[in-house]
Design goal:
The structure holds 2 protein chains of 2 kinds. By secondary structure, chain A is mainly alpha-helical. Helices cover about 70% and strands about 0% of the residues of chain A. The model of chain A has no long low-confidence stretch (mean pLDDT about 85). The chains are: A mainly alpha, B mainly alpha.
C-alpha cells in the first residue's frame, strides 16, 4: 500500500466515523418529539444537524476518494510519550474523586514528569509530592476551592 | 450619555485599584500565554476562566480581555527572538522579525512591534467605541428570523475564513452545535442525548470541552514536537527604533490597524488572516518587495499592528450583537453569561459599567503592555527555558482544578479527558476544532431563534426570506457556499489524473 493510498484510507475512515455519528444523531433526535414546522419539537434541530453532518461526511468521503494525495497526515500518536500521557490523564480522572486531589495529582505529576523528563523515579516522585502539596495549599487552602479529600483526612 | 461622558464613566470604573490590578494581571498573563508556544489566547482564556468566577463581571471581562490582547503582544517576542511563533497570529512576524534579530536589530524589531501594537490597539478601541453603539441600535430591531440568519451567516463566514478546509470546518461547526443540544430542551422539557444521566441534564460543560480541546489536546500535540529554542538576546542599548525605522513603519502601522480592525469584525481566524493580508499588502506597496523576508521592518510593523487591531474588531459583534465571531470572544461571552450579564444590544443600557469599563480598560491595558513589554522582554523570554516536563504537568493540573471547581463534578473531568483525546485526534486528521467552541455557544441561541421564527410564521420557512435583513444575510451565506462549491467542482473536474486535467496545473484546491 502506497503512502497516498494509506492516507486516503485514513481520510475515508474519518469520514465514515462522522457519517456514523451523523446517523446516530438522527436516531437520537427521533427519541424525542420532532414536532411540526408550525411547532418544532425538541428533536427538530438535532435532526437537521444529524442530516447535515451525514451529508458533509459523504461529501468528505467522496473528496478523499477523488483526491490523489488524501487529506490527512499521520493520525495516531507519533511518540509513545503521548500514549503514556493520555493513559495517565484517564487514570487521574478515574482516581480524582476516589483517591482525592492530593494523592491523584502527586501521582499524575510524578508519572508525567517521569514520562516527559526522563528523570529518575526518586526525583520525579519527590518533585511530584512537593508540587502536589503546593497545588493543594494554593487551590484548596488559599483559593478555597472544594477539592475532594479521598483517602486522606484533608 | 454621549460617547465622551460614557468613556469617562468607563475610566472611573476601570481605574479603581481592583480593576487596575486585574487589568495588569490579564496583560501579564496574556503576554506569558503569547510567549509560550502551543498555548494560544484561546487556551489561556479558557485555562484562566474559572479564576474569574469569584470576581465582579466587569473585573472578569477586563482580565480576560487583557489576556486576549496581551497574548498578541507576547506572541511577537518569540517570533522575533527565537523564530518560534508564540501563537498563530505571530507566524508572519517570524519572516522579517527573526532576520532583523540575526542582523543585530532585535531591539528595533521588538520595539516597533510593541509601538505598532499599541497604536493599533488604541485605534481599534476607538473604532470599537464608535461602531459598537451604532451596531447595537440596529440590532435592537432584529427579531428571531434576523438573529437566526445572522448566526447562519456568521458560521458560514467562520468556516470560509478559517485556516483549513471549509468542509471540515463546517463539520466541526455541526459537531459543536450538536454538543450544545445535549441536556434538557428549555422549550419542551425533554431530555436530549442524556440517556437518563442526571448530570448531563444541564448540558455538556462548555469549560470542560474547551479545556479538553485547547488545554489537554495542545499538550498532547506539543509532546510530539521537539522545540529547540535558539534565543537571540537583544541589546538594550539598541532597543529603540531609529528615525528611519519610524519613517518606514508608520505607514504599515496605520494600514495594518485599518486592515486588522475590519477583518477582525468578520467571524473566523481573523487575527491570523489579518497578519497575512497586511504582510501581502506591504510587500505589494513596497519599492523593494524582493527584500521582504530578509529583515524589512515593514514586515514586522504591519502584521503586528494588524493582529492587535483585530482584537478590537472582534469585540464588536460580541458586545453589540451578543454573537461572538471568534472562539476567544465566545469564551469571554460564557464568562459574562456565568455572571448573569448578557452581551448584546441591551448591554450598554443594562450594564454600562461592563461595556464602558471594558473599553476604558483596553486603553489602559495597551499602555501597560507598552510599559511592561520592552523592559521585561528578557524576563518573558526566559519562560521558554522552563522544561516541558514541569510546564505541561502544571498546565494539566490547572485544567483538572479549573474544570472540577465549576460544578464539583467528576463527569466534567471525563468530558475534558474525552474532548482532549478527541481534539488531539481531530488535529492529527486535519480538523481544526476551534469552530466547535464557537458553535457550542451559538447553538442554543440558534435553535431558539429558528423555532421561534417558525412559530411566528406558523411553519412557513418563507419568513426567513421575506424580511429584508434576514434575506440579505441568508443570500450572503448562500453566495459564499456557492462560490466554494464552484471551486470544489472545478477542482474535481480538472483534478490530476483525469483526461480533463491535461494542460491544467496539477494542484488541488487550497481548501476542500
Amino acid at each position: 500500500m502506497t503512502r497516498g493510498a494509506r492516507e486516503r484510507a485514513k481520510a475515508s475512515a474519518a469520514s465514515i466515523v462522522f457519517l456514523l455519528l451523523g446517523v446516530w444523531i438522527c436516531f437520537e433526535a427521533f427519541q424525542v418529539p420532532l414536532g411540526s414546522f408550525r411547532m418544532p419539537g425538541a428533536g427538530f434541530f438535532p435532526l437537521l444537524l444529524g442530516m447535515t453532518l451525514s451529508v458533509f461526511s459523504i461529501m468528505l468521503l467522496g473528496m478523499s476518494l477523488l483526491s490523489p494525495e488524501g487529506g490527512s497526515s499521520h493520525v495516531g500518536p507519533e511518540r509513545p510519550e503521548v500514549l503514556y500521557l493520555m493513559g495517565s490523564i484517564v487514570a487521574a480522572v478515574w482516581l480524582f474523586e476516589r483517591a482525592g486531589f492530593l494523592v491523584t495529582m502527586a501521582l499524575f505529576a510524578g508519572v508525567a514528569m517521569k514520562v516527559l523528563g526522563k528523570m529518575s523515579w526518586v526525583t520525579a516522585v519527590s518533585l511530584a509530592v512537593i508540587g502536589g502539596l503546593a497545588a493543594w495549599f494554593v487551590f484548596g487552602r488559599v483559593l478555597l476551592i472544594a477539592l475532594p479529600s479521598g483517602i486522606l483526612p484533608f | 450619555m454621549d460617547t465622551v461622558q460614557s468613556l469617562l464613566y468607563g475610566f472611573s470604573v476601570s481605574l479603581t485599584p481592583g480593576n487596575l490590578l486585574y487589568c495588569a494581571l490579564g496583560v501579564v498573563l496574556g503576554t506569558i500565554v503569547g510567549v509560550l508556544p502551543g498555548i494560544g489566547p484561546l487556551g489561556g482564556i479558557t485555562l484562566l476562566l474559572p479564576t474569574t468566577f469569584g470576581m465582579e463581571p466587569v473585573s472578569a471581562i477586563i482580565m480576560l480581555a487583557g489576556i486576549y490582547y496581551g497574548a498578541m503582544y507576547g506572541g511577537s517576542t518569540t517570533s522575533i527572538l527565537v523564530n518560534i511563533p508564540g501563537e498563530a497570529a505571530s507566524v508572519v512576524t517570524c519572516f522579517d522579525g527573526y532576520q532583523m534579530a540575526r542582523q543585530g536589530r532585535a531591539g528595533p524589531a521588538l520595539s516597533i512591534a510593541a509601538f505598532g501594537s499599541f497604536i493599533a490597539g488604541t485605534l481599534s478601541v476607538l473604532g470599537l467605541m464608535l461602531l459598537a453603539p451604532l451596531l447595537a441600535s440596529v440590532a435592537l430591531k432584529f427579531g428571531p428570523p434576523e438573529q437566526f440568519s445572522l448566526m447562519v451567516l456568521s458560521l458560514i463566514i467562520l468556516a470560509y475564513m478559517g485556516t483549513g478546509s471549509v468542509l471540515k470546518a463546517m463539520m466541526m461547526i455541526v459537531l459543536g452545535l450538536t454538543l450544545a443540544m445535549v441536556g434538557i430542551d428549555h422549550l419542551s422539557g425533554f431530555a436530549r442525548f442524556t440517556h437518563g444521566r442526571v448530570d448531563l441534564g444541564d448540558g455538556i460543560s462548555f469549560l470542560a470541552v474547551a479545556m479538553g480541546l485547547f488545554g489537554v489536546a495542545e499538550i498532547l500535540l506539543n509532546v510530539e514536537k521537539t522545540v529547540v529554542a535558539d534565543i537571540i538576546k537583544p541589546k538594550l542599548s539598541t532597543l529603540l527604533p531609529t528615525r528611519e525605522d519610524w519613517k518606514r513603519s508608520l505607514g504599515p502601522i496605520f494600514r495594518g490597524s485599518g486592515v486588522g480592525f475590519l477583518i477582525g469584525i468578520l467571524p473566523g481566524a481573523s487575527h491570523i488572516i489579518s497578519t497575512f493580508v497586511s504582510y501581502g499588502m506591504e510587500k505589494r506597496l513596497s519599492r523593494h518587495p524582493e527584500e521582504f523576508g530578509t529583515g524589512r521592518i515593514e514586515g514586522v510593523a504591519g502584521p503586528e499592528s494588524a493582529n492587535n487591531a483585530a482584537t478590537g474588531g472582534a469585540m464588536i459583534p460580541f458586545l453589540a450583537l451578543g454573537i461572538p465571531s471568534a472562539p476567544a470572544t465566545a469564551t469571554m461571552m460564557v464568562a459574562l453569561l456565568i455572571h448573569g450579564v448578557k452581551p448584546g444590544p441591551l448591554l450598554m443600557e443594562q450594564n454600562p459599567q461592563v461595556f464602558w469599563g471594558l473599553i476604558a480598560s483596553m486603553y489602559i491595558g495597551n499602555v501597560m503592555l507598552l510599559i511592561l513589554n520592552l523592559p521585561l522582554v528578557g524576563l518573558f523570554i526566559n519562560l521558554l527555558r522552563v522544561p516541558q516536563h514541569f510546564l505541561y504537568p502544571g498546565i494539566l493540573l490547572i485544567c483538572f482544578v479549573g474544570v472540577y471547581s465549576v460544578n464539583l463534578s467528576g463527569t466534567d473531568l471525563w468530558i475534558m479527558a474525552i474532548a482532549g483525546v478527541a481534539g488531539y485526534l481531530l488535529r492529527k486528521a486535519g480538523f481544526d476544532p476551534a469552530p466547535i467552541v464557537l458553535a457550542m455557544v451559538l447553538g442554543p441561541m440558534m435553535e431558539q431563534a429558528l423555532r421561534q421564527g417558525l412559530m411566528m410564521s406558523k411553519g412557513e420557512f418563507g419568513i426567513f426570506l421575506s424580511r429584508p435583513i434576514s434575506a440579505a444575510m441568508l443570500a450572503g451565506a448562500v453566495l459564499l457556499l456557492a462560490a466554494h462549491l464552484v471551486g470544489v467542482l472545478r477542482w474535481a473536474w480538472t483534478r490530476p489524473g483525469t483526461k480533463r486535467a491535461e494542460g491544467v496545473p496539477a494542484e488541488g484546491p487550497t481548501s476542500t
